[in-house]
């Protein structure tokens, strides 16, 4: 199957999952996760109509972006070190993986220097897995309040990566929990905070995520095929 065929198939599944859940399919955006894939694969997907891509590794991403000539939009979805934030300014329109105040401060500082504001999501580690990034559900509200005070950043919603991301049924309670957390924050009416985006669902479980309210699904393998190389960090 070509990238174009895969894209068509995934789009069909997104639409079907949205309709089955009584949702408007246009509420859901596909983030094509292109980590470890060549620039040529991104270009191929772009020519097939995919406009939004997600990347995980700053160095790999910036090198690749320089080789993609199609007008695509990039999101950063991977764990992010503060000393690399500077390289993302002007390249990404949304950072999904903000999980601590110090990182948010650096994003605000760097975007501010460029005279811009950055849209971000707060990443929540709902299961509390030590191997993964994300703030805990318990700390989320206070982190949201702190991050909301930063001048050059806008909180647009939440992101999560559940522990069982290849098993839709096992992942579903985590998706539901993320939506509930967004609801709690939304009703807290924190100035400057909008809970309009829920980034959840990957190749193995994006339909369940859509049924639970996802607005951004992050799909890599189902679109590009298996990743040949282990992630470079
Ligand atoms: C790699 C990755 C994905 C995509 O995973 P697939 O199972 O290949 O669809 C989604 N989100 C994040 C944060 C990732 O690192």
In short:
The protein is α/β, with parallel strands linked by helices and 233 residues long.
Instruction: Summarize model confidence as the mean pLDDT.
Output: 96
Which sheet architecture does the biggest sheet show? 8 strands, parallel
Q: Globular, elongated, flat, extended or rod-shaped: what is the shape?
A: globular
By DSSP, the count of extended strands is 8
CATH topology: TIM Barrel
Q: What is the CATH superfamily label?
A: Alanine racemase
Helix content: 25-40%
What is the first-to-last residue Cα distance?
29 Å
The SSE string, one letter per element, is: HEHEHEEHEHEHEHEH
Bound molecules: pyridoxal-5'-phosphate
Work out the radius of gyration.
17 Å
Structural class: alpha/beta
Question: What's the arrangement of secondary structure elements?
Answer:
Layout: H1 3-20, E1 29-33, H2 39-47, E2 52-55, H3 58-65, E3 73-76, E4 94-98, H4 101-113, E5 118-124, H5 137-148, E6 153-160, H6 168-187, E7 193-199, H7 206-211, E8 216-219, H8 221-224
Parallel strand pairs: 1-2, 1-8, 2-3, 3-4, 4-5, 5-6, 6-7
This protein binds pyridoxal-5'-phosphate (PLP).
Task: Give a structural overview.
The chain is α/β, with parallel strands linked by helices. It has a single domain, classed as Alanine racemase (TIM Barrel, Alpha-Beta Barrel). The chain contains 8 helices and 8 strands; from the N terminus they run αβαβαββαβαβαβαβα. The protein has helices at 3-20, 39-47, 58-65, 101-113, 137-148, 168-187, 206-211, 221-224, and strands at residues 29-33, 52-55, 73-76, 94-98, 118-124, 153-160, 193-199, 216-219. It has an 8-stranded parallel β-sheet with strand order 7-6-5-4-3-2-1-8. It is globular and about 45 Å long. The mean pLDDT is 96. The protein binds pyridoxal-5'-phosphate.
């Amino acid at each position: 199957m070509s990238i174009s065929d895969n894209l068509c198939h995934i789009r069909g599944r997104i639409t079907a999952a949205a309709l089955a859940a009584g949702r408007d399919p246009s509420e859901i955006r596909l983030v094509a996760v292109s980590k470890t894939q060549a620039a040529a694969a991104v270009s191929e997907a772009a020519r097939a109509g995919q406009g939004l891509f997600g990347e995980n590794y700053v160095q790999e991403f910036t090198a690749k972006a320089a080789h993609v000539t199609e007008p695509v939009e990039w999101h950063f979805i991977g764990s992010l070190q503060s000393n690399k934030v500077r390289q993302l300014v002007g390249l990404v329109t949304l950072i999904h993986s903000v999980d601590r105040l110090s990182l948010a401060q650096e994003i605000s500082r760097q975007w501010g220097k460029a005279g811009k504001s950055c849209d971000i999501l707060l990443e929540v580690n709902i299961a509390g897995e030590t191997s993964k990034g994300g703030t805990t559900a318990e700390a989320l509200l206070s982190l949201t309040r702190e991050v909301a005070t930063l001048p050059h950043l806008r909180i647009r919603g939440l992101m999560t990566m559940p522990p069982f991301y290849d098993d839709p049924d096992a992942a579903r309670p985590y998706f539901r929990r993320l939506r509930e957390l967004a609801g709690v924050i939304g009703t807290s009416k924190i100035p400057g905070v909008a809970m309009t985006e829920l980034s959840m669902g990957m190749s193995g479980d994006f339909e369940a995520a859509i049924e639970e309210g996802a607005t951004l699904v992050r799909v890599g393998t189902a679109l590009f095929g298996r990743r040949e190389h282990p992630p470079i960090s």
